[in-house]
Write a structure and sequence with these properties.
Radius of gyration: 18 Å
Helix content: 40-55%
Largest sheet: 5 strands, parallel
Shape: globular
CATH class of the largest domain: Alpha Beta
CATH topology of the largest domain: Rossmann fold
Length: 227
Amino acid sequence: MSEHKILVVDDEPSIVDAVATALRYEGYAVEEAKTGREALSAVASFEPDLVVLDWMLPDIEGIEVGRRLRERGFKTAVLFLTAKDATENKVEALRAGGDDYVTKPFSLAELVARAQAILRRTAGELPGDVLRFADLVLDEERHEVFRGDEQIDLTATEFNLLRYFLLNPRRVLSKAQILQNVWRYDFGGNSNVVETYVSYLRRKLDAAGPPLIRTIRQAGYMLDAKA
């Protein structure tokens, strides 16, 4: 029986019921919410490990709920439900601190698999090492990242992505390798999520110093001080 707690947020009762039932079947403790305000209140009281959050809610958009959770310091992972082919929504979802997204209509099997993948990577025990490269320092135990004297605020997924780069410096890492080791998908994941997260991580790192992540055309990415 899993000890993980999941909050499902959607204003369509049929979706909430189906998703919650599927997750409970997998052994998760599940609570439900129909609005953004209910979601914010439930996160504070229920303290879920994951929020399955619909983009379109009747009061506060899911994207704004995600932002408010981050602003209030909640570290819970977020899996967004977005409209089909709404590319801008997907990008905004990740930018707001989301850990992944599923497009409607979706299969319950896919949603459960993505939820399991998120929980595996965000709940994994870190060995507590301090990883260094150039002027970059990642402290696994304290969950902190610095470039020189400047602290860099990363989401859980960005932190794990950077950790994977730091464990493999000056090695070309393919999108497939990154999906498998950071997202921990045991199924075919969308490589676009890798491109998006690398761009966000790169932006945060570059704001504090010279570029460190190189794009290797048709091969992947590499952590290199000569980026």
